Amino acid sequence: MLRLTALACALALATPALAETKVPGDPYADDPVGIVADPCPVHPKPTDGAGWQMGNLHMLTRDFGQLCRYAADNHALASQIADRKVLVVFMGDSITDNWINLDPEMFKGGLVDRGISGQTTAQMLVRFRADVIALKPQAVHIMAMTNDIAGNTGAATMETVLGNIQSMADLARAHGIKVIIASVPPAGAFPWSPDKQPVPQIAAINQWLADYARANGFTFIDYHAAMAEADGAMKPGLSSDGVHPTKEGYAIMRPLALAAIAKTLGEK
Q1: Residue 132: which of 118, 113, 117 has the closest Cα?
Q2: Less packed terminus of the chain by CB within 10 Å, N or C?
Q3: Alpha helices (H) along the chain
Q4: β-strand partners of 92
């Protein structure tokens, strides 16, 4: 979750002729660019820190929304989409991305995980059409903003990040998809962004999300209240690093999510 936005911008400014897609040292500089039939070449996963950093820089300059992450999986869901068997898409960051790994039984029977580690709301909005709307679910579960607070893709105002949530909800509603808004889970600190003090911002965001969901007739899930200590940090044993849930953490989240889904899909 290293922040490489500034590096990407600096390198782009240093090479104006190649600013759109290429940076010095990019191992994938020969990948296709522009509007093409297949924008998602397969690359080996990085095996060291330097490789991961370059891969992240490649993402920021080539595939900001990471649309390639689930492109093949979305295509494989074609029959379920046609039969309207996709019930709920879970849109989110690493907390959603890791959920299917630690609780795979959760994502069966029409529940689809579309989390991507490290993403901010701006990135989720970019891929919302491909990873949510195109799957034609009955509902979407949106859990985000941990990485906006951490600054993973740079700086943004509170109005901007909350506006991204509103835009995703507006898109869902315009396509007949019911909306489930999840609170930001608790975190006392971010290991990858130690200068941030997330507790007050998480509290402010969660109050806004609860009010926004209520005002718009959306379902709100308060994971934070179920998992937080009095000081706003995650309860011991529920996370691996104070941010990302363990199996025990997801065991608390699962019944809350399923109850919210039952309520949402049961509404006429």
Answers
A1: 113
A2: C
A3: 5-14, 49-62, 71-76, 78-82, 94-97, 99-102, 121-131, 146-150, 158-174, 198-216, 223-227, 247-266
A4: 115, 143
Q: How far apart are the first and last CA of the chain?
A: 41
Q: Supply the pLDDT for residue 63.
A: 84
Two tokens, residue 242: 């104070």
Q: Which two tokens stand for residue 2?
A: 């290293």
The strand order across the sheet containing 139-143 reads 111-115, 88-92, 139-143, 178-182, 219-221
pTM for this one? 0.88
Cβ atoms 91, 114 nearer than 8 A? yes
- CA–CA dist 165, 180 (Å, integer): 11
pLDDT over 90 (residue 7)? no
Asked if residue 59 has pLDDT above 90, the reply is no
> DSSP string spanning 28-94?
TTTS--SS-S------PPP-SHHHHHHHHHHHHHH-TT-TTTTHHHHHHTHHHHHTT---EEEEESH
